[in-house]
Specification:
9 helices; 209 residues; mainly alpha
Length: 209
């Protein structure tokens, strides 16, 4: 009788230990899973935030980097920065703005974006599309950008005549020629504020000839 009581008591203890062990295991897995889910969500949120940078902040960081590479003092940079910015802006105008729209970009001449494309390619594609759209909108505020957009619009029109295309093409070339002359003048003004070493660096960077 005593022996059976001892055996029954041991059986109850073993069952209790097993139940407690399973409870702790489930709790640990759930905790790790929850942390992983939160970590994953946090990682995705962080990645989303990194893709949405403030353009003004990006411009400030780029200016600081350029100033450092040129080895310019604060006083020198006051003269160099606005002249360099003008050269950069005109350089973009001269170097075929809107090229992405011509060759298969969003709404481009070579191909139009299909419905749902941005979603299937993920958030990064959407961010790049928005960035590209912003840049094109800024470019179209200039004479070259406006002429480029008008020529692209004519090329997308299957009923456009040869004379209409020639007119828009001539307007774009005129705008580019004007921008090229303005760029040459801006480069000359920039050179006047540079040391020889700084000038050499900007020649290698493609901002000066």
């Amino acid at each position: 009788m005593l022996k059976r009581s001892i055996v029954a008591g041991l059986a109850v203890c073993i069952v209790a230990i097993l139940l407690v062990s399973q409870s702790f295991s489930a709790g640990g897995a759930g905790g790790r899973g929850g942390a992983g889910a939160r970590g994953g969500a946090g990682g995705r949120a962080g990645a989303g935030q990194r893709t949405q940078r403030d353009p003004a902040e990006m411009q400030r960081l780029m200016n600081e980097r350029m100033k450092e590479q040129l080895g310019a003092t604060d006083e020198q940079w006051k003269d160099i920065q606005p002249r360099l910015q003008k050269v950069m802006t005109l350089s973009r105008q001269v170097s075929a703005p809107g090229r992405g729209m011509m060759f298969g970009g969003p709404g481009g001449f070579a191909g139009r974006r299909q419905p749902g494309t941005a979603r299937t390619r993920g958030q990064d594609t959407g961010d790049r599309t928005r960035t590209g759209t912003t840049r094109r909108a800024q470019a179209q505020q200039t004479a070259v950008g406006k002429a480029t957009a008008e020529l692209q619009e004519v090329l997308r029109n299957e009923e456009a005549t040869a004379d209409q295309i020639k007119e828009k093409l001539a307007a774009l070339r005129t705008a580019k020629d004007k921008a090229q002359k303005e760029l040459a003048a801006a480069q000359k003004e920039l050179k006047e504020k540079l040391t020889v070493k700084q000038e050499a660096f900007l020649v290698l960077s493609g901002y000066l000839n």
